[in-house]
């Protein structure tokens, strides 16, 4: 990963301590992108812990089992939502860390694929700094599969790999939003709701690929991973800090 240079623009880190509600949390990332593309905010990193949510992709909504899948989520205490980015259903809760990174950019489309590779490796580096055996790449049977997912290897079984970070990107004229969902704690409810929703949708996947960082390194928690992510980002750009209220 390149180091922050003297001319690199400052990245403002904003910790959102309280959820705005599942739908508002998801929508706020898009609103933040709107602020960035019009120059009302500069490069910004928003970090928060979400309420229990299953974010379905647009393609999921066209499957005959979508309504049953959404109801299965509600029955398990997860709010079903539809995100604007692509991919398949992804589940998260208070044991996950969501990182929304927005930047103004004159030609945001040009670097879209490179961003997936770059930030995927950067997040894997952040996890490795805490002792997690993390690497970038899709694993067979993973939920919401992606070429640049971050996965970890189970310490007792080198053949058992679990997805730890899913990434998504939205690019508009004038800026980009790169969102990462890092699963840190309490993977069992996520496996359960994904099993129910993917079953209703008729999609094949391997529940063994759904795990959390503390399945691999038990002492780690969301705060320790948040600290590691911010520390690793300090090699990407000079950091500043602000209150979440500054964005509202």
What is the topology?
Layout: E1 11-16, H1 22-37, E2 44-48, E3 53-56, H2 66-75, E4 79-82, E5 90-92, E6 96-104, H3 112-128, E7 134-136, E8 150-154, E9 157-172, E10 175-183, H4 188-201, H5 213-216, H6 222-233, E11 239-243
Parallel strand pairs: 1-2, 1-11, 3-4
Antiparallel strand pairs: 2-6, 3-5, 6-10, 7-8, 8-9, 9-10
β content, as a range? 25-35%
Distance between the termini: 32 Å
**What does the overall shape look like?**
globular
- Mean pLDDT, to the nearest integer, reads 94
How many separate helices? 6
Strand order of the largest sheet: 7-8-9-10-6-2-1-11
Q: Which range best describes the helical content: under 10%, 10-25%, 25-40%, 40-55%, 55-70% or over 70%? A: 25-40%
Structural class: alpha/beta
* Unreliable sequence segments: 1-5
Number of β-strand runs = 11
Described by strand count, sense and barrel closure, the largest sheet is: 8 strands, mixed
Gyration radius, rounded: 17 Å
List the secondary-structure elements in sequence, H or E: EHEEHEEEHEEEEHHHE
List the defining traits of the structure above.
8-stranded mixed β-sheet; 11 strands; 29% helix
Account of the 3D structure:
It is built from six helices and eleven strands. The protein is an alpha/beta fold. The protein has an eight-stranded mixed beta sheet with strand order 7-8-9-10-6-2-1-11, sandwiched between helices. Strands 4-3-5 form a three-stranded mixed beta sheet. The N terminus is likely disordered.
């Amino acid at each position: 990963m390149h180091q922050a240079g003297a001319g690199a623009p400052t990245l403002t880190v904003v910790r959102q301590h309280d959820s705005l509600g599942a739908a508002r949390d998801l929508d706020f990332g898009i609103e933040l992108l709107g602020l960035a593309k019009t120059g009302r905010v500069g490069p910004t990193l928003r970090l928060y812990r979400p309420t229990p949510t299953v974010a379905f992709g647009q393609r999921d909504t066209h499957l005959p089992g979508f309504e049953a899948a959404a109801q299965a989520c509600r029955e398990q205490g997860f709010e079903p939502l539809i995100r604007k980015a692509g991919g398949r259903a992804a589940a998260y809760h208070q044991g996950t860390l969501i990182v929304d990174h927005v930047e103004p950019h004159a030609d945001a489309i040009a670097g879209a694929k490179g961003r997936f590779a770059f930030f995927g490796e950067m997040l894997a580096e952040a996890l490795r700094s805490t002792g997690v055996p993390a690497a970038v790449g899709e694993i067979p049977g993973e939920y919401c599969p992606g070429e640049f997912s971050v996965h970890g290897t189970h310490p007792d079984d080198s053949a058992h790999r679990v997805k730890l970070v899913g990434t998504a990107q939205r690019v508009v004229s004038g800026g980009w939003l790169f969102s990462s969902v890092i699963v840190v704690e309490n993977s069992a409810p996520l496996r359960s709701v994904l099993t129910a929703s993917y079953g209703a949708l008729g999609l094949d996947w391997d529940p063994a690929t759904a795990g959390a960082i503390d399945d691999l390194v038990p002492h780690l928690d969301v705060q320790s991973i948040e600290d590691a992510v911010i520390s690793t980002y300090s090699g990407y750009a000079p950091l500043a800090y602000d209150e979440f209220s500054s964005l509202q």
